[in-house]
Amino acid sequence: MPYLEAKCPKSSLVNVNANHKAEVLRAVKNLVPKAYPYKEYNSWKVEEARPLSSPKTFRPYFNLAKELCGSDIAENSWLIQLNFPKISPGVSASTGIMFIVKNSQDQWIVWYTYK
Question: Is the pTM of this model over 0.85?
Fold first, then answer.
């Protein structure tokens, strides 16, 4: 996977809160093929999409983002949890996690994936 090691964003970030979920989901359509470029990942479904800083987000994800790239990036990032149905259900590889952020050039970028 291209983003298994964190690629911390260097440019200024835009705070995108939970009210912008529709925008985030539109961006995800373009980001998933880049983050998961293999054919077994070409069918996918978003299971969860929320700001990493949301109280509803599993805290270890926020803590991981903060540890990898600092508080500012963690505070402005979104957690995207994906399901890949072509991979056997119940197998941990059928779930993917992406951390994404929007930069000041109005671009969404993936900066970390897990599986």
Answer: yes
